[in-house]
Amino acid sequence: MPDEKLARALRARVRRKILREIISAGRLSVHEVAERVGISEYSASRHLKLMYDLGILDFEQKHPEKYYFVKLKSLKDLLEAYDRVVEEMEVNR
Q: What SMART domains does the annotation carry (predicted)?
């Protein structure tokens, strides 16, 4: 189910941060994601693979690196809406 795949991809805060970084840059390598997000390359690679397997990301191989990019153009809008909802929830506590 696509909705369950999307929910799984967005469940972890670190994956949402990774997606924001990739959207901002256009495409990033595992090393670049790890550096920008402040996690190990191993952890970045695991998150990227999960989102690739879920159909959220794709990659371009440029030896020796894979450069990941977001497949879904509307994901940027969804993340922005998500942030607005979270902000509103915090205000209304």
A: HTH_ARSR (SM00418)
